[in-house]
Fold this protein.
Amino acid sequence: MNKINPKKILIMKFRNIGDVLLITPLIKNLKLNFPNAIIDVAVNKGCEEMVTLNPNINEVIIYDRAKIKKYSPIKRIIEEIKFAFSIRKNSYDMIINTTEGDRGAQLALLSGAEIKVGYPGGKNIFTKNVFTNYLPKQGFRHTLEMDLDSLREFDLEIKEKKVEIFWSLKDEEIVDKLLNKKDIMIKNFIHIHAVSRWMFKCISDVTMAKIIDFCESELKIKVLLTAAPVSQELDRLNNILSLCKSKPISLAGELTLKQTACLNKKAKIFIGVDTSIMHISAANNIPVLAFFGPSGTDHWGPWDNDCMESGYTKRNGFQTMGKHRVIAQTRDCQPCGKDGCDGTKISDCLMNLDFEFIKKNINEMVNGY
């Protein structure tokens, strides 16, 4: 058994929004194992709302990747060094790099931490043998389980596997005021996040419009739509709305991520594609109906907080985990991890989903079957 007792821990997750949310079980279990430890988290700018206000975190350190990339090569190196030394001055005695990649390895190398946990490096001579403890490959396992490997490395107890997100009282007040204005009752609406910034994850606009109409016109339950304040997503959602016969409520571009999470918590069910909002819904214990194409359900399916083991036993096809359901076709090429078929940004496996099967699942989830 590897006995450790870290006093100051840094967890690094330089990936996307949903990836960051999925490290919250790791954070919680570290706090349960080391209640007196100070835990900081380093993330890319734009992902911080997934971990801010988390009571188990001392500080969220933000890496502004987009800003630094705009600098000249020399200034970029200077800024990278400044960021690395801002990590070093915090005197961490344990660093956990939860993803592969040179940035995390470089920061671990310069951190001065006694315990450095991460994945084997590539051919870069400076980052190839940085870590004191190496983590296994993901294989056929959920990303949440992969993030917990650093606990297993030291024989630490995994006491729970709950994904968590937190928001402020002000966010709650804003959302409640909005729902009151729209005359929407809590647990009496369906939250749909129809679009991803990765367009190859989106289902057909026609199918999504039919889903909205089915919920509104046949099930007689109001649909609230959200989308990021990004022109590409807003344009896509506007096209979906133009195909609708019903009148759903669009809150596209109006809410922050925290406010979207707060809104979601008040929904009856969530319907959407593979996005961070899907993971937020699962964290909120709101039943999820998700559509998967190029991404693998075994790695990224919505995690049920009431479970200790993943329910996703296949890479594609229809699957469930607790209260959550994933609809995907069964193709030999799926999941491919590509940006659409032949680089088109359109995934054929998401264009012709069985609408009657979708309706059946929505009806069952809404009516508690």
Notes: The two ends are 46 Å apart (CA to CA).
